[in-house]
Amino acid sequence: MQHHVRPEGSPPTNGYSHAVSFAGPMVMVSGQVPLDAEGRLVGYDNCEEQTRQVFRNLENALAAAGSTMGDVVKLTVFLTTMADLDAFRSVRDEFVDRERPPAGAGQWAGPPGVPG
């Protein structure tokens, strides 16, 4: 069971909750990338296709642990450019219910020495 919170006096949000409380087993999922089951990159240079693959991978990992996207209590997102934030959000909304978990997003350029 989850309870999403927007505390009184908190600013409005853009697609996330300020806090969420939950009870039950906890499942930790590692960071996901836009690779398919054979390890091939999906959606080269296409944020929407890559985001859909990441969420498919999340759903698969959660299902293997007996969970669903509806049980997620926190999302942390790294994009290679913040210009993709709106595209990410539109795809995220295909996979995450209206009561969205708390979330954070930031830009990640990749490991040192690896071309972008």
UniProtKB/TrEMBL annotation:
Pfam families: Ribonuc_L-PSP. CDD domains: YjgF_YER057c_UK114_family. The keyword Nucleus does not apply. SUPFAM superfamilies: YjgF-like (SSF55298). Keywords: Hydrolase. It comes from the Bacteria. InterPro entries: RutC-like_sf (IPR035959), YjgF/YER057c/UK114 (IPR006175). Its EC number is 3.5.-.-. GO terms for molecular function: hydrolase activity. Belongs to the RutC family. This is RidA family protein. It comes from Paractinoplanes globisporus.
